[in-house]
Amino acid sequence: VENGFEQVELTEPKKALEDSGARTAIVSPERDKVRAWDMSDWGEEFDVDVTVEQAAPEEYDALLLPGGVMNPDRLRTNPKAVAFVKEFFCAGKPVASICHGPWTLIDAGVIEGRQLTSYPSLSKDLENAGARWVDREVVVDQGLVTSRNPGDIPVFNAKMIEEFAEGAHAGQQRSAR
């Protein structure tokens, strides 16, 4: 995550993962703390567990990309963050992305031919990058879980946990080539 991620799109899925027994880490280009956006103003600060420069994708089983407008817009212009995201697809690892989070997937070059959803304002960006965009609470495509907005979080969390528990997906690797 980068400064400006939508707070509930990190905190609620992170809590759901931890309640399911997962160990989580906040990875960010920022060094010590990263600040959330809470619907209409700045939210809380969160400790960064590891910087994206120090993080090794092979040490993680799955990836969660929260939305918020500022967060993915900043991540997608950071070559190290984009490469980090792409490595999950290359390894076939599951990825969950909500709201504006799929913007980063465009720059990682991993959505062509995939079906997904997002915040509606991204639909044309995603279609122009070769994705099939649909307006649904949650879409699962070979280990890639996407949702539209904070209202979809309960369904998003359930599918994210299911896909993360399944592990690697061969279809995920095909999209990264």
Describe the structure.
- The chain has 177 residues and is α/β, with parallel strands linked by helices.
- The protein is built from 7 helices and 11 strands.
- It has helices spanning 7-19, 70-75, 79-90, 102-108, 123-128, 153-166, 170-175; strands spanning 5-6, 27-28, 33-38, 41-47, 50-51, 63-65, 95-98, 115-116, 132-133, 138-141, 144-147.
- The strands form 4 sheets. The chain has a 4-stranded mixed beta sheet with strand order 6-7-11-10, with helices on both faces. Strands 1-3-4 form a 3-stranded mixed beta sheet.
- Strand 3 and strand 4 (41-47) form a beta hairpin.
- Helix 3 packs across helix 4.
- The chain is globular, with a radius of gyration of 14 Å.
- It starts with a strand and ends with a helix.
- The relative contact order is 0.17.
- The model has no long low-confidence stretch (mean pLDDT 96).
